[in-house]
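Q: I'm building a small set of examples for a reading group on sequence design. Run inverse folding on the following structure and report the sequence directly after it, with nothing in between.
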């Protein structure tokens, strides 16, 4: 894993959006793996700017998101809604180009990704508990897309997007660790001191199910972008 530490979130967003923009320029039919959460928002903002400024076409792209809630009370809290707001709508990416893991036959999602030739570039965040997508601690490394019970710490972390903790769904459908590992290239971004413990565990060099993100030690093409807060325990 290559680890890059930057002073500001803006610098990270600039570099990561550049990687996506370069890929889209070179490969207009690229397959993008996308993440939700606070972390990728600055990157998506920069990407929208760059794509518009350079006049890049997006109509050949296909996207696969990492995860989606199950049994949402509020459609506005769905990850599809998040992506529409931050990326798809600003860029004019059409619904039929985009995919989210389904509640019914989730494993079919892995087949669909493969049918599109696999994910060229996957962006990831990391949970404060070391999860990637919604693969919580002790998820088997060979898991494909599946339905999960969300850890209490994940529900609490994500409650900021909901009226109250009780409104946060208890389940989600997520790409599995094996699904994520099939991406050709992965960029993981971690920002803020609340991620420092998870980052330290991920970069300890040993892949262990207690820190799902540590599976990335086994992937041949991963770049980890950290700000100084997230890198706080590495010095
Ligand atoms: P965040 O979530 O970007 O909102 O911190 C990251 C994650 O849980 O994977």
């Amino acid at each position: 894993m290559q680890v890059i530490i930057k002073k500001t979130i803006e610098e990270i967003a600039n570099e990561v959006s550049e990687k996506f923009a370069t890929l889209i320029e070179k490969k207009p039919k690229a397959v993008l793996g996308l993440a939700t959460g606070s972390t990728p928002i600055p990157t998506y903002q920069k990407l929208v700017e760059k794509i518009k400024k350079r006049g890049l076409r997006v109509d050949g792209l296909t996207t696969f998101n990492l995860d989606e809630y199950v049994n949402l009370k509020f459609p506005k809290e769905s990850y599809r809604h998040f992506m529409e707001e931050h990326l798809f709508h600003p860029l004019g990416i059409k619904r039929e180009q985009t995919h989210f893991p389904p509640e019914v036959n989730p494993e079919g999602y892995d087949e669909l990704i493969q049918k599109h030739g696999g994910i060229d570039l996957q962006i990831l965040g990391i949970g404060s508990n070391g999860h990637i997508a919604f693969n919580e601690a002790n998820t088997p490394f060979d898991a494909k897309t599946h339905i999960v019970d969300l850890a209490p710490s994940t529900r609490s972390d994500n409650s900021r997007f909901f009226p109250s903790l009780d409104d946060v769904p208890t389940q989600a459908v997520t790409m599995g660790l094996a699904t994520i590992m099939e991406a050709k290239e992965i960029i993981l971004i971690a920002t803020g001191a609340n991620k420092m413990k998870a980052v330290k565990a991920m970069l300890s060099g040993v892949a262990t199910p207690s820190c799902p993100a540590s599976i990335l030690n086994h992937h041949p093409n991963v770049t980890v972008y950290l700000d100084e807060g997230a890198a706080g325990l590495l010095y």
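The chain has a mean pLDDT of 96.
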